[in-house]
Design brief:
The complex is a heterodimer of chains A (184) and B (124). The longest helix of chain A is centred in the middle third of the chain and has 46 residues, at 39-84. Chain A is 82% helix and 0% strand. Chain A is built from 7 helices and no strands. In chain B, a hairpin with a 7-residue loop joins β2 (70-77) and β3 (85-91). Chain B contains 4 helices and 3 strands. Chain B has a 3-stranded antiparallel sheet. The radius of gyration of chain B is 17 Å and the shape is globular. Classes of the chains: A mainly alpha (184), B alpha+beta (124). Chains A and B meet through α2 and α3 of A and α1, α2 and α3 of B.
């Protein structure tokens, strides 16, 4: 059980482990010693809670990095647009900035014990996927006489690939959400 | 509608509180408690219908400490459990004010439900 607890704790971000890891482990140990529940039930309870909370905390802790990264990419693409002289590159810049703005406004929402919270936001993934496709379109518009530069080609390739992945995740979460509504 | 960023100058900006945060505030309204005692209190107060896991508990506490709703007290053993030192938490003055505001909001909602005879729908 101690090994399981230590492994489960690794699912949480380092900052959380450093600040609350000892208390988290002690509470699991308290459950084991004082709650009167069977070990199997405690493991089930802790794992269900972990699935509901750890991804959210991981997401929150990486949001700062992602926001910085997206901002840098937006600035680089914007600067490239200025150098190339193509106003079409304003589209991917706007799309990236929109993704940054959406995530910045959403990432500090409270922790919820709802396991369905992730699938409830399927449309955000779809919107992010569309954003990536727009970035790809922007790169295509930047083509000079039908010739894509290596930067534009890499931008198009990466954004459409990312867009496809994110849209598939969004559709999967949407299907999960629909299934949970039907069960209810 | 997007929720406003909470500000201590505007208590309403914290509302509505997430259910987990309100449960923790109610548990701490009776005095300082450590994590497991908060969890047990919530379980008892809700008649077993709300069982908060350790991730939800400490995730909420972390956020509430960051927002200034909850403060860390000292570390000391709980004589009722064992001799291990535990970190205790207490309500901050801001947490008391926000808890009172959320209580008033929920009371108004319950009042409206009673006026509309919500509990009687389907029983008559």
């Amino acid at each position: 059980m101690n090994l399981l607890t230590r492994l489960a704790l690794l699912a949480y971000p380092r900052s959380f482990r450093r600040e609350y890891g000892t208390e988290w482990s002690r509470t699991v140990s308290d459950l084991q010693v004082h709650s009167g529940l069977s070990t199997a039930r405690i493991i089930g309870h802790v794992l269900a809670d972990l699935v509901a909370t750890a991804p959210r905390m991981r997401w929150e802790s990486t949001m700062g990095t992602i926001k910085t990264l997206l901002t840098i990419v937006a600035v680089i693409v914007g600067a490239a647009g200025l150098v190339i002289g193509s106003p079409a590159l304003a589209v991917p810049v706007m799309a990236l900035l929109a993704v940054v703005a959406i995530q910045a406004s959403r990432h500090d929402q409270p922790i919820s014990a709802e396991v369905t919270a992730w699938s409830a936001r399927w449309y955000v993934w779809l919107a992010a996927g569309v954003g990536f496709f727009l970035v790809g379109f922007g790169a295509l518009f930047a083509a000079d006489d039908g010739e894509l530069s290596s930067v534009a080609w890499a931008t198009w390739m990466l954004s459409w690939l990312s867009g496809a992945i994110v849209v598939v995740i969004g559709l999967g979460l949407g299907a999960t959400q629909l299934a949970s509504h039907r069960r209810a | 509608m997007a929720k406003r960023k909470p500000s201590p100058d505007d208590i309403d900006s914290y509302l509505p509180l997430p259910a987990s945060a309100m449960h923790i505030i109610v548990a701490l309204a009776a005095g300082e408690k450590h994590g497991y005692a908060i969890m047990r209190d919530i379980d008892e107060l809700s008649g077993g219908s709300v069982t908060m896991g350790p991730g939800t508990l400490y995730g909420s506490i972390k956020r509430m400490v960051d927002q200034g709703l909850v403060e860390e007290a000292d570390e000391r053993p709980d004589p009722a459990l064992d001799d291990q030192r535990r970190r205790y938490y207490r309500l901050a003055p801001l947490g008391q004010r926000v808890g009172a505001a959320e209580q008033a909001r929920l009371a108004a909602l319950l009042n409206a439900a009673q006026l509309r005879k919500l509990g009687l729908v389907g029983l008559t």
